[in-house]
Amino acid sequence: MPAQWMVGIAFVILGGALAAGFVWIALDARTEEWDGVYKRAGLLRRRWFVGLLAFAVVAFAVSMTWLPYQFVRAAQLPGQPLAVAVTGQQYAFNLDTQCLPTDKPVEFSVTSKDVTHGFAIYSPDGHIVGQTQAMPGYTNVLRVSLPTPGTYILRCDELCGPGHPFMQRQITVGSCGGSAGACGASACG
Ligand SMILES: [Cu+2]
């Protein structure tokens, strides 16, 4: 069953249970003084709030390890990375290498000389494999693994001016004069 369906069914069940609780209290109120109904409704709301709060805290803590924070990516992609400096400037990316290896992580340090740009890496089959922002006065670090050799495309995915649609360049992964899977020494530095 698709995840969206499971989430939808869980939402309907939980929402229905909450609504049923309030309906039950509302119907019960016809034969009961307001004070008792008010207390039970308040209790239900407080328990619901505490339950949601506990769920949110747990979900936040667990999902931290799913997000591409630097400490998470460093743990997922261990090893000494190839450091690549990237500077965005209307409307091009400046990199200090033309070739990236397939056999170790690549760590991009991304900044900008003018406005905020996006920095998105697209694999040869057109899938996005990593993304961060190129921001003036700040360096974002993006660690990725590129195990598939080929020609990748770096695209700006943040509207940065009239020339934004043309802000892209190619970069080779895995065959820069050496055998596939390894960069030539001069190209990779
Ligand atoms: Cu742009």
Q: What compounds sit in this structure?
A: copper (II) ion
For this structure, what is the CATH homologous superfamily of the largest domain? Answer: Cupredoxins -  blue copper proteins
Distance between the termini: 48 Å
Tell me what portion of residues adopts beta-strand conformation. 25-35%
Structural class: alpha/beta
What spatial form do the alpha-carbon principal axes imply?
Answer: elongated
Please indicate the count of domains.
2
Radius of gyration computed on alpha carbons: 26 Å
Portion in helices: 25-40%
The count of helical stretches stands at 4
CATH class of the largest domain: Mainly Beta
> In which order are the strands of the major sheet placed?
3-9-8-5-6
**CATH architecture heading of the largest domain:** Sandwich
Mean pLDDT: 88
Give me the count of strands: 11
Question: Biggest β-sheet, characterized?
Answer: 5 strands, mixed
Query: Helix-strand pattern, N to C?
Result: HHHEEEEEEEEEEEH
Do you know the CATH topology of the largest domain?
Immunoglobulin-like
> Which stretches are poorly predicted, pLDDT < 50 over at least 5 residues?
184-189
Give a written overview of the molecule.
The protein is of the alpha/beta class. It has two domains: about 5-65; about 80-189, Cupredoxins -  blue copper proteins (Immunoglobulin-like, Sandwich), CATH 2.60.40.420. The protein is about 35% helix and about 30% strand. It is built from four helices and eleven strands, in the order H-H-H-E-E-E-E-E-E-E-E-E-E-E-H. The chain has helices at about 5-30, 35-65, 70-75, 185-189, and strands at about 80-90, 90-95, 100, 105-110, 115-120, 130-135, 140-145, 150-155, 170-175, 175, 180-185. Strands 3-9-8-5-6 form a five-stranded mixed beta sheet, with no helix packed on it. Strand 5 (about 115-120) and strand 6 (about 130-135) form a beta hairpin. The longest helix has 30 residues, at about 35-65. It is elongated and about 80 Å long. The model is unreliable at about 185-189 (pLDDT under 50). Copper (II) ion (CU) binds near residues 117, 158 and 160.
